[in-house]
């Protein structure tokens, strides 16, 4: 599970992490002010049955830091391009909420205890 870099263009790179290899792909986008690392625990659990992709927004992690790219339409198009290049876009689920991630982490901790 190391980070990977996806070249959108000469001046635009998205950093992402890939876990698992199931038929279903789950793409997780972090909240502002955090990074994909906040989803590692949940991604490792979900990767038992699915392929999980964690993407860092522009300005976070190893993705390009350029304020001109911090727009919903830009990140939306570029994340779609990344997902399309990795395959399985027809069977992808997009998760974008830190509350859901926090709830999943708590559930995982209680079920393993």
From TrEMBL:
Q: Which domain of life is it from?
A: Bacteria
The leader peptide range reads: none
Q: Which InterPro entries match?
A: AB_hydrolase_1, AB_hydrolase_fold
Domain (AB hydrolase-1) spans 25-90
A Pfam family matched by this chain, by name? Abhydrolase_1
Q: What is this protein called?
A: AB hydrolase-1 domain-containing protein
Instruction: Identify the species of origin.
Output: Eubacterium pyruvativorans
Q: What is the lineage of its organism?
A: Bacteria, Bacillati, Bacillota, Clostridia, Eubacteriales
């Amino acid at each position: 599970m190391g980070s990977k870099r996806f070249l959108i263009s000469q001046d635009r790179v998205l950093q992402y992490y890939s876990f698992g290899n199931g038929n279903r792909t789950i793409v997780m986008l972090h909240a502002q002010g955090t990074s994909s690392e906040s989803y590692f625990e949940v991604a490792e659990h979900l990767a038992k049955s699915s392929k999980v992709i964690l993407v860092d927004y522009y300005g976070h992690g190893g993705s390009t830091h350029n304020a001109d790219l911090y727009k919903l339409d830009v990140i939306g198009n570029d994340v779609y391009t990344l997902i399309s290049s990795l395959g399985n876009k027809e069977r992808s689920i997009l998760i974008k909420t830190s509350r859901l991630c926090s709830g999943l982490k708590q559930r995982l901790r209680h079920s393993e205890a």
